[in-house]
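Treating backbone geometry as a discrete language has practical consequences that deserve illustration. In the encoding step, the backbone of a single protein was reduced to a row of integers, each denoting a local shape. The amino acid sequence and the backbone structure tokens for this protein are reproduced below.
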Amino acid sequence: MNHIGENIRLVREQHGLTRLELAKKARVGRAVIEKYESGSSTPDTLTILKLCTILDIPVSTITNQQVDLQNQNEFHHTMLHQQDFNENSFHSYV
């Protein structure tokens, strides 16, 4: 299995999605997701971007050799706090 396919599977499972659910969200067939995860096919750049948007992850999570889901969770936690800070800062200037 290639690392991109393995990473897609890991993140999909972390999000509690089945292959069919992810396929529906990505508007592709379940077999397409299965091929990505098995390594028999590799998603193109546009599809990687679509999957990352659906899964709310940076592209590096799928394209890195090894997914560090712990750091991924910390990244999202930091980004959410940064977004709250930016929104609160904006409102304080209005």
